[in-house]
Each structure stands twice: as structure tokens, then as C-alpha cells.
Write the C-alpha cells for this entry.
Amino acid sequence: MAEALLAAQGIGVRFGEFRALSEVSLAVAPGSLHAIIGPNGAGKTTLFNVLTGRLAPTEGRVVLAGQDVTRLAAHRRVHLGMARSFQVTNIFADLTVAENLRLAAQAVAGNEPWVFWRGRSAMAAKVAALLEQVGLSARADWRAGDLSHGGQRALEIGMALAADNPRVIFLDEPLAGMGIDDVHRTKDLIRALVPARTVLLIEHNMRVVLDIADRITVLAQGRPIAEGAPAAIRADAAVREAYLGSGT
Ligand SMILES: Nc1ncnc2c1ncn2[C@@H]1O[C@H](COP(=O)(O)OP(=O)(O)OP(=O)(O)O)[C@@H](O)[C@H]1O
Ligand SMILES: [Mg+2]
């Protein structure tokens, strides 16, 4: 494997007496779509929080492009190329789709001097490109709150992409609660992010994960129990065991 763009090394997280993560190591190849799956409460979101800097691990290291970022604040990691789409929706429902994207782009560009002389037309071009990329050009002037669930997730992905050149994009259950049409559209959108970007995906829809992931890490009770290509994960006895009775 090429050198990892993002790695977790021996991550442990304790909440009081409770161990949410134990000895989690993970290497994400550049340009790959790496999925993290596992039963409810396995520690998937906690691992995202550690990787993105919202939560400091009790043990272990996070390495981004060879740099130890374990103690680096979340916003500093964003500047190093990490972009996150949150499980809880992040958009301004009363603004238009285009306005949401413009705000996301400005939030990143805001304190850089070029934005003042590069001007409005450059920003408009950037927003148009983002709309195109996430398939929302025809709905640019819609109120964001009127988009379907899938449309809103597409907008959130667009907002993550608005960050200047994000290298790693984190998506936590982007398909949750979607109807079948939206699932197909959003699945294609996520797959199209690689190899230009690197994607970390948490998702319970196993059919989609097996279809689009390059590599899958399975967590159960805070520990990795399997890692490999989709075909190997599908055949893995420990994975089947972990999912028995979980209803997934
Ligand atoms: N801040 C916290 N304080 C205490 N316990 C927590 C905290 N955050 C998470 N946990 C616990 O850690 C465990 C892992 O939670 P986490 O949200 O990472 O699971 P998950 O794999 O994302 O689950 P789901 O599939 O339901 O989203 C759970 O038992 C949860 O209750
Ligand atoms: Mg979660």
C-alpha cells in the first residue's frame, strides 16, 4: 500500500470507567474510500471525533500526511485538509442552496487577503462548480430546507468540499433516513469524490458499503475485529458474528 495519508495508531478512548476505543490502528491510503462499519455503539463516531480533533484520545496517535496531529485543534486540522460532514445537519434551511455554499466557501476564505481582490465573480464561479459537482445546479435557488433528505446531504457534501482543497472528507452515516432514489444518487456522489479526495465513511447500509468501499475496517465494542477489501469482509466469520442479532 502507498504510504497512508491518514493513520490512527493504537488509539484508546476512555469515558470515565468506560472504554469506548481500545488499540485502534488504521491506515487510510490516499485517494481511497475507506469505510468504518460496526454495530451501534461500536465506537465509530468516537473514532471520527479523535481523527478530526473534536476529542483527544486517552492513548495513541493520529498522523496526517506524516505529521503527528494528535494534539492539534480541529480547526487547525481543517487547514491541513480535513473536512467533515456532520451526522447532525449543518445547513441554513432558510437560505438558498447557493447561499449555503457561498457561506461555506467564505468561512474558509474569510481571513485570507486574496478574497478581497479576487472578488465576487471568482466566488460565483466556485459556487457554480460546487453546485455542478454535487448535482444541485438546477436547484441553486431553492430554499435549502425544501430539498429532499438526499438533496440536503448532497449540499452538506458540497459544503465540505467548499473548504479549500480538502484532502480527507469524513462522512458519518450520509445515507441515514434516505429513500431509495436519494441513496443511489448520494452513493454515486460519494464514490465520485475519490480518487481526487480521500474519503472516510461511516455507514450502516452494508450493500452500499460493500459496493463502493475500497477497504473496510470493522469495529465492535471499541476494537477493530476485521479489515480488508469488501469481498474479504463479506466472507469474514467474526464480522458475521458481530452483526448477528444487531438487526443490521
Ligand atoms: N461523550 C461521551 N461520554 C460517555 N460515553 C460516550 C460519549 N460518547 C460516546 N460514548 C459511548 O461510547 C460508545 C461508542 O459510541 P459511538 O457514538 O462512537 O458509537 P457508534 O459506533 O458511532 O454508534 P452508532 O452506530 O449508533 O452511531 C457508546 O457506548 C456511547 O454511549
Ligand atoms: Mg455514530
Q: What stands out?
A: The first strand starts at residue 6 and ends at 15. Residues 15, 18, 20, 38, 40-46 surround adenosine-5'-triphosphate (ligand 1) (CB under 6 Å). The two ends are 30 Å apart (CA to CA). Residues 1-81+168-191+199-248 form a domain with the Rossmann fold fold (CATH 3.40.50.300).
